[in-house]
Write a structure and sequence with these properties.
Number of strands: 9
Largest sheet: 7 strands, mixed
Shape: globular
Structural class: alpha+beta
Strand content: 25-35%
CATH architecture: Alpha-Beta Complex
CATH topology: Nucleoside Triphosphate Pyrophosphohydrolase
Helix content: 25-40%
CATH class: Alpha Beta
Radius of gyration: 16 Å
Order of helices and strands: HEEHEEEEHEEEHHH
Length: about 190
Amino acid sequence: MSDQNLVPKPDDLFDVVDELDRVIAVRPRREVHALGLLHRAVHVLVFNDAGQLFLQKRSMKKDRQPGLWDSSASGHVDHGEDYDTAAIREFEEELGVKPPSNLTRWFKVEARPETDHEFVWVYRAYHNGPFRLHPIEIDDGAWFMPDHIEKWLAERPQDFASAVPVILAHARTLGQWPGCDLLHWPSQR
């Protein structure tokens, strides 16, 4: 796939969904965003053996939330695509490597303004890198300890894409952020 195929286009098609995440229509990307229609996305949180989370800094070329720190990999679910396929695709496109076999669904976040009206399935995986970050999608990336991210988020929330605080807050409600359950999955490595 060429780099040009990875650049979001205003006419890319998204499935529009209802409040129960059921597909009700298909609309162009620009219309979905302009009208705040409910649609679907995935976020992948990648942890290494040291318990660090990889965050990406969104490219300044992005049309939405450029230059902000975001999940390890994230993106829209394309028209006709399911969440799992989208998670694998985004992992490969943005991080430049095949996803590990331990890539699994973790939890779902309901659509709201902070998620850009997206229903978001959050996935987690273990991978120690290195990654080949896609230059059109990502300007930078780094590993951070969860406690550092928490402090950073509290002091400078404006540094993060709007879905990140929602996702991490949901992980906290599960008792798995920044806890040992999240950081040690010996059966899934």
